[in-house]
């Protein structure tokens, strides 16, 4: 119930292509869904986040699509660049003060020039 | 400024040593977190402090002892660690506003190696 399942485990995309990472959850009490980007040797950094009352959120080349009925959400990276090569984690939390984030397993993205 | 700082960046310790990790934020955040991250794995929550009080302990072994001296500082005291405790230790903070969408800001981590 507390799990967030993320796929694929790894992804190779050509420069300029679209990267798509998917996540699914079971606990309908989750109400906040952030995506974090992590470069080697660094801490995770918030990329974009969405709440379940919105079906899509776009920030630059990054878009979250959210399907509440299917309990799924995905990250789309348009025009992928080599600098996007990193590990991406989806997460979910139940709001109310501090947030206990439940992370997905992570996706290692490599964007080839 | 959305910076969380952590010291040291790297730490090597023996199993009989006592050491401490330090985390600092000046964003006025009232929730602070310790995570442990093994290679190629997501961060695992260890402890949460809310308004300087320990709110969550995720059944962490007593050889890890957290401390929150004030709202800006978070320490993790280490004693009698095992080699399997080697990992990246991440600190994070968030506003703790009760709104449910507070962003957690992570520090760069301390790379710990236990010999």
List the helices and strands and how they pair.
The complex is a heterodimer of chains A (113) and B (115).
Chain A: E1 4-7, E2 10-14, E3 19-25, E4 33-38, E5 45-50, E6 56-59, E7 62-67, E8 72-77, E9 86-92, E10 102-103, E11 107-112
Parallel strand pairs in A: 2-11
Antiparallel strand pairs in A: 1-3, 3-8, 4-5, 4-9, 6-7, 7-8, 9-10, 9-11
Chain B: E1 4-7, E2 10-13, E3 18-25, E4 31-37, E5 44-50, E6 53-57, E7 64-70, E8 73-79, E9 87-94, E10 105-106, E11 110-114
Parallel strand pairs in B: 2-11
Antiparallel strand pairs in B: 1-3, 3-8, 4-5, 4-9, 5-6, 7-8, 9-10, 9-11
Question: What are the main properties of this structure?
Answer:
heterodimer; A: 113 residues; mainly beta; 52% strand; globular; B: 115 residues; seven-stranded mixed sheet; 11 strands
Radius of gyration of chain A: 13 Å
How far is it from the N-terminal to the C-terminal residue of chain B, by CA? 36 Å
Order of helices and strands of chain A: EEEEEEEEEEE
Percent range for β-strand residues of chain B = over 45%
Largest interface: A-B, 27 and 30 residues
Mean pLDDT of chain B: 93
For the secondary structure, the number of strands of chain B is: 11
- Average of the residue pLDDT scores of chain A: 93
Describe this structure in words.
With 113 residues, chain A is mainly β. Chain A is 0% helix and 52% strand. Chain A has strands at residues 4-7, 10-14, 19-25, 33-38, 45-50, 56-59, 62-67, 72-77, 86-92, 102-103, 107-112. In chain A, the strands form two sheets. In chain A, strands 2, 4, 5, 9, 10 and 11 form a six-stranded mixed β-sheet that branches. Chain A starts with a strand and ends with a strand. Chain B has 115 residues and is an all-beta fold. Chain B contains no helices and eleven strands. Chain B has strands at 4-7, 10-13, 18-25, 31-37, 44-50, 53-57, 64-70, 73-79, 87-94, 105-106, 110-114. The mean pLDDT of chain B is 93.
